[in-house]
Amino acid sequence: MRKILVMGISAGAGKSTVARTLGEKLNYPVTYLDSLYFEPGWKEVSDEVFQQRQVDATLGATWVIEGNYSRTLPVREKYADTVVYLELPLYLCLYRVVKRRIRYHRQTRPDMGKECPEKLDWEFLKYIVTTYRRRKVDMRGRMRRYVEEGKKVFRLQSRLQIQDFLQKLEQTKLDELP
């Protein structure tokens, strides 16, 4: 577990929190893809810039990279040896997205690009709801492929599983994790 991708079924799955916690426990640098993709004021960077920033994030001997961004996944997945995949229920993801919007009202989250205050609109909520099942199928297929490639994959499907995983990480040598 030296190069870790933290991915999730949806916004609100807990990717940023898990990535931050892994970084703290392992003393690895953490990169949040949203912070690489958005410039101040929610301005999107070009695909070339975004990809180069991801390549730069994979150069170290150890790292945690948080986020999905499926269209640029090949840039970073080839370097990862471990994937932590969060597949929480849709209702919980939606609850967390709304809670996050309230908590960070007029503020920028630590895992976002600078000067990108938290926002939430119906289009984003609709996207979460209408693509959840398809993404679950796609992500499970991707996780199977990762296992076949020899990567360690941890599929965590509840808050308790996430808590147990992080607690075991603290108590166990990294090579002994299931």
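the 2nd protein, sequnce then structure:
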Amino acid sequence: MTEPVRAELRRSGGYAGRSLHVVMDSPTLPEPDARRLTQLVRSLDLTRLGAKIAAPCDADLVRYDLALQCGGRHWRGTVAEPTVPPELRPLLRFLTQAALIRR
């Protein structure tokens, strides 16, 4: 049995100012989505990622407030365009698409 994975994303800012919010818990998701969420979160080195996050303050920038739980590990941070780390982009894309579908 794999440890549960949970991700919460709040997206705000940008020129249109359209905010999004989504929470995904692997035990409650359809199997393909749970597998993809788990894969994306487990592929991140959360220790290294936390050291390089920088979120510029500008209302026109898209900001992502992200909270992750993977087993006993927890991570929380804010990133903004254009300084989103490349390794975080696939997870942000997956969560954003899920939020749009659930609207």
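The beta strands are 5-13, 20-25, 62-70, 73-80. Helices lie at 31-42, 46-52, 89-102.
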